[in-house]
Prior knowledge:
Strand content of chain B: 15-25%
Number of strands of chain A: 23
Distance between the termini of chain B: 64 Å
Structural class of chain A: alpha/beta
CATH architecture of the largest domain in chain A: 3-Layer(aba) Sandwich
Oligomer: heterodimer
CATH architecture of chain B: 3-Layer(aba) Sandwich
Order of helices and strands of chain B: HEHEHEHHEEEHEHEHEEHEEHEHH
Largest interface: A-B, 80 and 63 residues
CATH topology of the largest domain in chain A: Pyruvate-ferredoxin Oxidoreductase, domain 3
Largest sheet of chain A: 7 strands, mixed
Shape of chain B: globular
Helix content of chain B: 25-40%
Number of domains of chain A: 4
Strand content of chain A: 15-25%
CATH superfamily of the largest domain in chain A: Pyruvate-ferredoxin oxidoreductase, PFOR, domain III
Radius of gyration of chain B: 21 Å
CATH topology of chain B: Rossmann fold
Structural class of chain B: alpha/beta
Number of helices of chain A: 19
Number of domains of chain B: 1
Helix content of chain A: 25-40%
Amino acid sequence: xxxxxxxxxxxxxxxxxxxxxxxxxxxxxxxxxxxxxxxxxxxxxxxxxxxxxxxxxxxxxxxxxxxxxxxxxxxxxxxxxxxxxxxxxxxxxxxxxxxxxxxxxxxxxxxxxxxxxxxxxxxxxxxxxxxxxxxxxxxxxxxxxxxxxxxxxxxxxxxxxxxxxxxxxxxxxxxxxxxxxxxxxxxxxxxxxxxxxxxxxxxxxxxxxxxxxxxxxxxxxxxxxxxxxxxxxxxxxxxxxxxxxxxxxxxxxxxxxxxxxxxxxxxxxxxxxxxxxxxxxxxxxxxxxxxxxxxxxxxxxxxxxxxxxxxxxxxxxxxxxxxxxxxxxxxxxxxxxxxxxxxxxxxxxxxxxxxxxxxxxxxxxxxxxxxxxxxxxxxxxxxxxxxxxxxxxxxxxxxxxxxxxxxxxxxxxxxxxxxxxxxxxxxxxxxxxxxxxxxxxxxxxxxxxxxxxxxxxxxxxxxxxxxxxxxxxxxxxxxxxxxxxxxxxxxxxxxxxxxxxxxxxxxxxxxxxxxxxxxxxxxxxxxxxxxxxxxxxxxxxxxxxxxxxxxxxxxxxxxxxxxxxxxxxxxxxxxxxxxxxxxxxxxxxxxxxxxxxxxxxxxxxxxxxxxxxxxxxxxxxxxx
Amino acid sequence: xxxxxxxxxxxxxxxxxxxxxxxxxxxxxxxxxxxxxxxxxxxxxxxxxxxxxxxxxxxxxxxxxxxxxxxxxxxxxxxxxxxxxxxxxxxxxxxxxxxxxxxxxxxxxxxxxxxxxxxxxxxxxxxxxxxxxxxxxxxxxxxxxxxxxxxxxxxxxxxxxxxxxxxxxxxxxxxxxxxxxxxxxxxxxxxxxxxxxxxxxxxxxxxxxxxxxxxxxxxxxxxxxxxxxxxxxxxxxxxxxxxxxxxxxxxxxxxxxxxxxxxxxxxxxxxxxxxxxxxxxxxxxxxxxxxxxxxxxxxxxxxxxxxxxxxxxxxxxxxxxxxxxxxxxxxxxxxxxxxxxxxxxxxxxxx
Lengths: 624, 351
């Protein structure tokens, strides 16, 4: 797909609040705080913005990029072509410069000459002697390296006409307690700012201008938001094993608990976080805790999910509440730990051996990570089955602008069907796995409650009383009930979000997607409309599928299933579980590990439409 | 029918404990293990220990992994919640359960395959976390349910029923537990109820992870000539290095012993671990010396039994984690959810 013109970037001439910039650095050089500062400053100028960190699985020395997308209309998905590159890493100069659109700009460190073969005639090169400036103004290697990052922040502030008051205020807040750092940062930014103003015509035609779009928004990553959801849902026990990109979810939970979950009188913890020896143990701990009645969860990624498989089957079959956050990364195997993907869809919903099927929620952004975390705890206790919140690295670890999170103080946890001591006292006999209400959901008891509440939870074959059985009838009875229970959950999960094509007429084309590709699809839907292609869009938010998914598929002649994995896992799931004939469902996939962009969808869908005039033609480019 | 109900007949003359309960109240379903299985003796000893401890059965939780040992929680404590999980992973489930509700009593039953092969990592890390749990290893040196393969506790030179000889060195759960810093370590024999019952009682009362390795002969696959886990071999090679008693907090009984005869260790709840007899050169309070003593005896082919190490000062998982004193499961939602005002204030930091 390289070489094609990005429709978003095809406009020329002056543009305000519509730009994509990419900063190429080396990991371990301290660029993260400078990049975060830039993104936060733009946010505080009231402009919709996103920041995506493309980082290596490494501590120090490898290339890393930070991409900032600014868009007044709120389109903040990743783009593949940039207006401006800050090329700080000689090892990636060639690639970074290649990704700038014709007519764009490259900011580079001119302390050393830029090799002639890297130059492009259609770009403007803005050389700033950053290393020289830092050697002159700062002491010590570490500070000289760190402050180069702040110099380019100053340069960008001048070039893009950022509000310097906002920048200064942010530095003040960030380094309030470290006076020496405060002064150095101010100086570095001023050096860059002044150099750019003195040597180039500022601002560039592509620049920023104050708006007021963010007064009701926050910037947050999905893992922090999910952790906050766990705190608000009343989760008290987390067990985990460190794995990128889920680690920051537990880190955030720990951070919020330290702040919000201390007993005010004793200072003791109203939570327990267990860093387990591996993901198998993490899953077992969560299940033991869920069985005992607390809201418990783990966070992991693909390899951890594979290890948890056996325990997930136990929780499914013994009907034990437990919440699993799967922050997907590129698989299979170790895959690309710091690259994003939607490759676990099938391995989540069918996790573990034997007949299993699991409830899954698919948040599209950090706001949904927060709310779905709360939903997940209610669902897992209501249905007494593991519930998965399936996020990904892009949602989990990148900074997203979302509406302020709202909390309803009237919320109370749905603990599901739990019998207390008084109810047990008056019961003739407690039968753990009996479908007494006809909804497939049995009653459970917590350990220690009452002598009549005892039962034996087991992963081995059992009958309605939880007794071991190898009897066909007793075994099948329980298995059928569990299947009914899970099927019944579909209608109680978050409903799909449908976004109709612009205009009043019904569209015959549809897109189905889930998760973090959402913003890119919304943008693609608009771009396609501008090209005269009207497409409706349904975003799946839960599995088992909500009944309205079928209605959407039924009412469109062609449906493009857009996802970030090789094997079209969502499409396969629709075919099997709606169920729906595969001929109508055409596949659009992009799974190389980078966040999805509108261009990805637009190009593929246009290709499919051009390649197939009528329904009889073959499905070029789709997964058959 | 895959389970057998046990007739519940309580004769009026049955002895009662201080709760007014009889042994029947601590029993479970009929065992489906082989007649003569060591595991059934351990079950009987556990029933006796729990009866004597006067524990309300529904306040006890029993957990197990997979294998013959994994089945046994069905054979005691009918009125207790039970959890039969996956192979070698009982320590994780127990960690979660103890994490959620620290007020209940936890009894975990494992086997040599469950603890020393598939679950050795979980066993090690539950010791490290010092989860408050009695952890019984029903150790027969063999995989019974899959018909007689050697387990990791099989001794070098031990012969399988079909004649093969084990050449790989064994993992000794007692030495392993000591080296990992376990705070309560004991070894006993399923055929020695006198020794076993007080050890089990003390293990239940120990605050932390109490490892009790119990040689428990497999009558079907490992009780033949050439086996080192047979009834005969075990009886011939036993060396009791401590004779320990467990004494509830009752001052009048303490007074009945003469000073100098015994060594007492005070447990967390005030009960006493009383060592009536300790072998020369053995010191159960010194982990390193105990380790050296036991490994020297193991090299000589002796099976050292008794309460081998107890550290009543050590902190258990909740202490180490700074958790609230009551069970997490009892915390009201109002104490857990910070509310909308806090969320609003928090979000000012996200701008």
